[in-house]
## 1
Amino acid sequence: MAVTARQAPRQAATRDEAGGQDAALLALIGQTMRPHWRLLLLAVLALLGTAAMNALPPYLVRLAIDGPLVRRDVGGLWILGAAYAGTALAMFGLQYAQTYLLQNAGQRALADLRVRLFGHLLRQDQGFFGRTPTGDLVARLTSDIDALNALLSTSVVTILSESVTLLVIVVVMLAINWQLALLALAVLPVLALITRFFRRRIRRSSHGEREALARISGFLNEQLHGMTIVQLFGRQAASAREYDGYNGGYRQALIVLRRQSALFLASQEILSATGLALLLYGGGRGVLAGWVSSIGTLVAFILWAERAFQPVLRLSEQYNAVQIGLGAAERVHRMLVTEPAIQDPPRPVAPPPARGAIDIRHVTFGYLPDEPVLRDISLAIPAGQTLAVVGATGAGKSSLVGLLGRFYDPQEGEVLLDGVDIRRLRLADLRRRVAVVPQDPICLAGTIAQNIRLYRDDLTDDDVRRAAELANAHRFIERLPRGYDSDVLPGGANLSVGQRQLLALARALALSPQGVLVLDEATSSIDTATEALIQEALERILRTRTSVVIAHRLSTIRNADRIIVMHHGKIVEDGTHQALLAKGGYYAALHHHQGPVGSGA
Amino acid sequence: MRSAGLRGSGLQSTGLRFLLPYMRPYRGHLIRGTVYAILGAGASAFSPTVLGWAVDELNTAERENRLVRLDVLALYALGLLGLAGLLALFRYLLRMLTGEIAAGVSYQMSRDLFNKLLLFSRASMQEYGVGDLLSRATSDFIYIWRFYSAGFQMSMHALLLLLIGTALMAWSNLLLAGLVLVMLTVSLTAQFRLSRALEGLFTGVQREMGVLSAFTQEHLASARMLAVYNQEAPAVATFRHTTDRYTRRNLDFLLRSAVISPLPALFVRLAQALVLLVGGTLIIQDRLTLGQYTTFVVYLGLLNSAAMQLSGAYERLLQGSAAAGRIGEILHRGTRVSDAPDAGEPPLTGTLRFEGVGVREGRHWVLRQIDVEVPAGTTLGIVGATGAGKSTLLGLVGRIRDPDEGRVTIDGHDVRRITLAALRRAVVYVPQETLLFSMPLRDNITLGLDGVPDERVQAAARVARLTGDLTQLPRGLDTIVGERGASLSGGQKQRTAIARAIVRDPRILLMDDSLSAVDTETAAGIIAELRAGAANTRLIVSQRLAAVRDAEQIIVLDEGRIVERGTHASLLQDDGLYAAMYRREAQQAADELDEDRAAADD
């Protein structure tokens, strides 16, 4: 299907030959954990204690078999039994301490990482958002960070504690009887080989599983947004079929992954038994030949071997989770190293006194470098001028807006604001001086007032109201059940497009009371009566501000100081309303077609 | 939460009752799985006994100072290997079987979920929000998978291991086995009691995750606006709060479970201490052999890991059940707009009537007392200020929502008595905002139709004035449009939506200001052509009077009521709101004409 084709190349180059990447990922994890090193250090101490408590019991059993049991000394048995119970309680306490410390550190570190990633993504340029579906980004911040969470909170804890346990047991065994120890550990190299064999296969299938889930998530994101359309146009059956494909793919991927790990675990179980059988046969001969000192020693080694294998098994069980976690870490890492194309300059200049003069010089721009949408455009807008931009769909009007707000940088030429190339200004400084109101008005979940002031809590209710009145949004807001405190649903779903445009306009007036105002079809869905009222208010505001207005309606355009007509990425006409009419070119033709009472019909 | 009132009785009340029905097709699997688990766990439980025999053989040989029979020792060693082979084989089979169940159940459930979502009304959609639904449809299924795969497999294996092992131990020494059993019962009871609280905590964690995910989704989609107003930093600060709230909940959950989940292991270790003490005493009294003691100690090791698996499985069970509860909440939710049991598919010609229609948002009436008849073959123009209720009115015809009062009929049939499928074949709605899917433009136009011949698509594209744009696109009609149609301009998107409507050849066409982003010249052409051919009955909402001027009927809405109705001519005579709107536009036109003349004189 279409979506598969679109997503496959994007995610294909990933973990398969990742080896060297792991260092970068570990660095990311290390970097994230560093602020919490004190907690981590304490946790490691607790972990060492846990491992010691885990290794001790077989030694106590050996003491019992070779001591009190031979001497028939019940008192000595009591002491050893009490010591055994003591190790159990100590281990429980130490384990909790270790979890407490690690979780506190890990959870905080992950919260930090989540916030860091969110901030980083918000800084990305528009090109990035165009390339990357929002669903993918949300997955980075939720399921991937969660996978990292699982990696740190479960896998790392298990891996650390089990490896320390293994190490302690091996050292103790070697110290007591090295021949027997070597016999017990003989299968470990084979284990390492088998692990290596399965590692690559599990890595690949776990990657496949994640990909399948990402496809489900991407598909759902789009379908859920468009659910009304899917229903009204009766596409339910086709959507269900398509979903079935993704869902079935995920099911298949899960089974493939399951088979790999089940085979791996089965081989582990057989190996562990082989080690035990070797120990029993070889050690048994040793007891008889005398190089194993006592039967107590053999029993203790059998218990140790069990305890040594448990960590190995649990370590390998973690392998999958680690792969998933590392895969997630890699995707997060890749996001974090993606630098936005639009950034603050290294040495920003102080913004000149704000007047609002714009000078566009020989600008060529295309979303794809070899497909320019603007070709060698030059345009000077003096401070205070109201410029209207007219042109057919696809003439390059919105691209021009994108350059003014520096959502994109031109391939050639430059855009000057009050004589300074906007690429030399800090983005925050630029955007304090240029406000762009888009055609697709955006609403956030919250109240009407919050939607106007966004996060600017310094704006009073009066400020908000004044802006709404100016934008003519006040009238509809007042009629809502709770006025400015009425809830706006996610995406502004309970408001009409016109109402959302009015809100967006109010927002612009509240948050950017000065500077250049760019209206990109910002009033296209507002009825003419309301628009006329807005026009009146806007005219007062625009008189003092430089403004660029893109519109289809001539009523919106004709009051502009100056009008440019764009066609195929070039400015083809430039002048006042009357001058352009007199010229009898494209603008005049357009004007002729749009009689207000439908002369075009 | 919906199920809050039933929580008291524990697991049964929440997720499991949604999950169990999905198990029905797998009854055969479960029986096979039980057999595998018995064989695997049996092999595993029997190996300590073999080990014990070997130790006894060695011990007596050493004590009686006679030669040990090496072939017997080898036999025991081989026995251990054979048992391990059986364990590995049957556990592999069990793992694959539970994996199949897990993948199958989550596939089926996920499918049901999506099918349910396809029936969701716009109101339900808004109530949950896309972010929340998305998190249910993805991360909750991960927990359900874990519940069935690892959780099921581990609990089956561990439980049977405990059962068989205990029986073997009892056979070897009743007193010791009794001791172990008592410790184990105490441990498991304590654990199940304590962890009931965990389920509630986990649901809380998932709910916070939903909030976090919705916030993320919304703000990333609004990144440009946040940039325009320099609001990134405060947005990040708010994100920090949301994250911290989630983290606190999660930490609370994790620390609570850190106390509960190692409990079984603790009890097993304490049991081992007891076995050392009591077993040692029995050996001293010659009532137990060293081999039997070894069997007990090794078996306790197995028990230890079985108990740990059991608690791991229990945790997954809780998480899976909480997740299933969240899915079940959606699955069992009633759909507000659905087919009535007696809904039919009558032939429709397209006479549309609104009879005393009212729509309410809370206590506020969005529409009130709407009575209009639109005879088949005519056009109704609807004008009015932003927020007057025009879109809501159109939405009633295709049943985006149902009215709270009155009814809407087509050819005398209440739309609620017509099946949704038939209704939506007859009625096509072109919304204000166009939504395109990431698939070829052609599929976006023929959305929901199968096997539409190329000529019809081309013809629709021609009427919608899309033909010229096609030549600019790299692959014409087969160009794939980006996520939510990002790579087309607003006007191109709207014209695609018009083509989408035309290709369906509907009885009733609803246009909700569908040409706002199309330039005037093109819009005029499209409207003229629609008037000539498309659909029997047309309802046109427009900001431009030009679009409705020739309609047989025009209504003017204000604050949800019809304030004027008539034809263009009669409305002008009535000299009301419509006439005022017309005069305003005419005045503009006159001004422009004057300017035209003035300009021409220059």
Note: Chain B has three domains: 12-331, 352-566, 568-602.
## 2
Amino acid sequence: MIEQVRSRFGDAKDLVSEVMDNGYARLELCFFPAMCDVDQIKDAILVPFSYRFDPDEFRRMLKTGLTFLKSDEPKKWPELLLKGCVLLQYEDKVYSFLAIRKMQKAPGDTEVEASLQGPQSAFTEDLDMNMNLVRLRYNSPNLNAELMEKGEISRTRIMILFDREKVDRTSLDELRKRLESIKPQLIQASGQLAMYIGNARFSMFPITLQTERPDRVAQLLQRGKIAVLVDGSRFAITLPVRFFDFMHAMDDDYEPFWMGRIIILFRYLGMVLSMTLPALYIAACSYNPEFFRVQLAFSIDGSRAAVPYPSFVEVFIMLFMIEALIEASIRLPRFVGSTAATVGGLILGQAAQQAGLVSSIMIIVTSVVAISNFVIPNSSFSYSIRALKYVFVLVATFYGMVGIIVTLFLIVVYLCHLRSFGQPYLAVNMQKDQQKREQSR
Amino acid sequence: MKRLLRILLPLVLCLNVSGCGMKDIDKRFYVVTTGVDLTDNPEKPYRISLRLAITSAQVESGSSRTEIETIDAPSIAEGVRHLKSHVDKELEFGHCRIFVLGKSLLRTASPETMSFFSRRRDIQMISVFAVGEPDALSVLKVSPKSERYPGNALFLSFGNEGTESPYTITTYLFDLVRKAYERGIDPILPVIKAEGRTYVIDQAVVLNKKGTGLLLTPKETQLYKMTTSRSAKAEVVLPLDEQARVVLTVSQLRTKIGIDRGTVPTVRMKVRVSGILEESPPGLLERDWHGLERRMEESLSGQIEDLLIKIRNSGTDPYGFGLKYLSQYFGKEKDYKYWQSVYPEVKFKVESDIHIKGPGVIR
């Protein structure tokens, strides 16, 4: 066996292959120490084989042990070794022993979707740990799990989870069909997979929701959605989703009813502001100044007097600055991050206004846009809104207020047209419709 | 490629429909008050004056700065067009909420010449029209000390935004246009008097369709405002002997107007007023509460009737009795002619009902 394996791996130096002899029997052993838990190998194989050796007991252990599997096909050996198995040959039979080295021993902390009073644990980069987290929260025999492997090279394990009784069958079929049709080389993050199965790569809005919160996955499963867990990724993909799911934070369910509603309302307001405010500024400044009250009109007029460029150039300058700032603070190491914020926020904002490059109202507009964009709980959705803002700015530059209203209308039309795995994206009365359908069945 | 073209073409075509051209807010010159006067020159009868706002980023009391541009022109539209060559930025009427017509203008101008204001797209229909005394230009030249924003003092004077004076009548453009063309109702305009560094707006002019009008005194203006709008911020005064006066502040007010048909129609007006006494000689109310109410009712009814008769005799109809008559009796052309013929003899019957709630707050 050893020669066969060695030749397949091209004499890899990190492969350990050993022939052991305790005087009574011979054992051939090969494994990747980097991928295996050496303590487990010692406890399960080396100890029984060496100083507590009993041929009968050892044979029985190999045959009945849960973690020992008989693997006679030489074709599968490299695959098993790469997954972190130990291959051992004893009395001309080959067994594999699963001794994967686990990096994660505990659930992670929520980082992207922080919550005040909800659970603080998040998914980890280990699929088994994630399964544990989901099973813990969704403790029902109806929970179906299907294992799959995707990626020609990465061979990433993928787990499809759904509630057998509640799941929407058409969506599930659609998902399976799409998963079968894709042939990616590497799958390193769930976002990547989401893009492959999303079908519409140029869609303006995400049609799958990625979350790092097990409680959200459990909630969505209970509502008949499907979750896809990807090994090595902290995020689960859930589908099909609606527009409103993206604006929902888990805290809304944990806070008192009215508080939650009011905060959701503010969130929608923030979304609309962050999308349209720069465009409204252009439209009101350059096309319809009578839109403001007279006091505001005069103070904008006064503060814009020193600005040399038309309003849309001013907006582009400020928006570029704020986008650069956001991007920088994400990419920079944490120690330098706060410097970027200070430099950008304090110095650029104040100085740009005093230098007469932008008006003081524009500074307020920019900060409202930036802050209200962070109100959106889902990051991929907030990316969409960030991008849409530029569509509005462009339209407002050419068509003014009329353009903004028409674009807003077009976006609603687009949202109505969008489907997430067969389900309408902007379904307002989804639950009522489903109830009706079930009654008529 | 074809698809791209199909998307781009409508967008390019849309460039034509963007409406008013792109002009930044700081490239526009805001007109805050417009004045129109009559000149002696028959070739250029209109003198158009615009009060333009000079804006600044800092706002302090009394910091408002304005500039006045004046031109004589054969028509208002021509004058405004010509004035554009006097200034460095595009004239913008979007925030011009006060239009002052010179007193001299009222005598000759017909509604048609005034239609400029209602036709222009950037003049808002909620702008206020008033009569300037002695002329519009001198009203424009007043710059009150308390003014923070250019033109703001006049903006605040009208409507209920700033002061709520019982003497100030507010006539909006949409209302003026309606009343200028509707039969059976006549427009009424407030009079702005320029006095030193402030404005005094306590009188009103009732116009008939030809323009000539009737000037109401401040007292009559207040009565008119009381009986037409539900403005509660008014007072009813009963002069007693020995120079003592009883003043009732109105807190609730309701007026009903009905017209009885007959050979000579009778206009019935019911005014219900309730409020508290703000000023009265001591012990008066306790002695004869109802008697006092009755005396005040009689006095108020008399005052209102006098006002109505005065208005009737001048041949104007700001209350819209004619319109009311037509609406009540399916008015056709014939009915209106009849109404016009009997209007000078119309009888008025005013009933007022005053309820004194008390002598005010007890401390």
Note: Chain A has a mean pLDDT of 84.
